[in-house]
Amino acid sequence: MDGNNRSKGRPPLKVGRRNKKIDVRFSEDEYKEILAMEQEFGMPKAELMRMRVLRDSGIVVTNSRELIRQLDRVAGEMGRCGNNINQLAHYSNIMQLKEILDPETTVRFNRLLNEYISYQITLESVLRKVILSLGRSKS
Tens digit of pLDDT for each residue in 54-111? Predict the structure, then answer.
């Protein structure tokens, strides 16, 4: 091969060529965090840095496994609360039929039920926002 012939391979980029470099130093803990992100999101460190600094600076990168784990935990708790509410309502109906239901119990039950419904509405609203933001970050 003479000196004028280039080896075959990818042709050089005319536009969008990355020829500028920025050196950044990280602490050991910061670097471990970056390595963990690289592993979790399946993308190289350089692409993570570009994404966070240039394209998606306003978007939070989400640990999807942790998010799903926490949502699963919250859903389980909400389900248990719902079961408890059903059991209390059933027990209250029995007490009412026997005419031994204390009116204060009904007042407290209704207050707690309203509080539960308020928490459920708030949770639904927050989840909608999370889902929408995740959808926007992919586009």
Answer: 776 555 556 677 778 888 888 888 889 889 888 988 988 899 899 998 888 888 888 8
CA angle 123, 129, 135 (to 5 degrees): 135
pLDDT of residue 57: 59
* Number of domains observed in the structure of the chain: 2
Q: Which domain holds residue 78?
A: 64-138
Distance CA 45, CA 7 (A): 29
Tokens of 13: 């980029």
Can you say whether residue 99 is alpha, beta or left, with left for phi > 0 and alpha for psi between -120 and 50 degrees?
Answer: left
Query: Above 70 in pLDDT, residue 138?
Result: no
- At 135, the amino acid letter reads G
d(CA 5, CA 59): 46
pTM of the model: 0.47
47 and 107 assigned to the same domain: no
Instruction: State the SS3 of 46-106.
Output: HHHHHHHHHHCCCCCCCCHHHHHHHHHHHHHHHHHHHHHHHHHHHHHHHHHHCCCCCHHHH
